[in-house]
Amino acid sequence: MICSEEHLSSSLEKPRSCESNAYVLPSAEDVVIYSCSPDDRSWLKTIKLEQCDRSDLASLLAFISNVQRIAPFRVFTCDSNTPLIDNVHFGLFLPKLISLHGTELTLSYPLCKSGTVHELLKPYYVDGGLPESLVIAIFSRAVKSLSKLHDLGWIHRAICARHLLLHPSSENNEDFLDVSFCGLGSIAPVRPFGSVLNRTDLPVIDARWRGWHYQNLQETVYSTHPVAWYSPEMIEQDFEGYGKPADIYSLGVTLAEMFTGIAPFVGTITPSLIFLKKLTLKEPLSLPCPPGRAASGDMLAIFESCTHLDPNCRPTAEDLLRTPWVQRGLAIPLRESLLTPFRQQ
């Protein structure tokens, strides 16, 4: 696979749905540089710290601190480079090396040729989604990764098809794949450190070190804002706050995204309008079915339970793992050869 900017960006949150998408603009300050290692085995994200303002640096330090809490390793200087041996921890696809060269911070990730689930979807087709046999295989592995993350006491807060990374399940066989979460700029502990209360804050979305920002333009193609995947209680920001059920809701919305090929709230111009629609949502979500395809009863039941408006009524990741539908998905081999036809469409 040619190492293109589109492939690199998909693993680190630079949203692109197709080449003609004008809704997402690159950073004007060129704070972030994407490149590939000389051996073509890693891709690099280099952040120019001198071009980050105070709030950017604060969110960047919080991100590094969170990553180090999950898988302890230190930031290296250019004179000491010992990479993380296993970069998949608790369902997260972590950088294998964070190095500091002067005022440039570089995050090094293994290059996953299979990319993300988002790259398999074709929203500009009438039926650009995946068949249920593939959806169940991918979803079940995402549930397994989410269960590991939640058991550790963390939430992702940005689950979507773009942040489901397909990577080899073993070094010896690259055809068999597993699913882990990338797009880690929003990860956080379920409760802020030192607090017994749930979170009430929203993730920092457009910090310049993340390499992209959103503009409220007058038209869009097939993209949408990250808040489209947020749960209602996450947007409400009330005293009750939100926790693990917010990730379950986002995973349910991602299930629909994989099946239909279309991101939620496509065509909604501004994030504030998405906020308003979610806050006034009184009816449960329904799973749209592409022409000529119908979802199974088990799949519909999983979707409806994950996207229940009441977070207390949603299943936990452990509950989902015990369902026959997810167990069936885990038993289905997820192979790169099965995904190839969807890349060639």
Automatic annotation (TrEMBL):
Q: Which GO terms describe its cellular component?
A: serine/threonine protein kinase complex
**Domain spans labelled Protein kinase:** 1-326
Q: What terms describe the molecular function in GO for this protein?
A: ATP binding; protein kinase activity; protein serine/threonine kinase activator activity
Q: Which InterPro entries match?
A: Kinase-like_dom_sf, Prot_kinase_dom, STRAD_A/B-like
Q: Which PROSITE patterns match?
A: PROTEIN_KINASE_DOM
An example of a Gene Ontology BP annotation on this entry?
protein export from nucleus
Which family does the record assign?
A: Belongs to the protein kinase superfamily. STE Ser/Thr protein kinase family. STE20 subfamily.
Q: What is this protein called?
A: Protein kinase domain-containing protein
Organism of derivation: Taenia asiatica (Asian tapeworm)
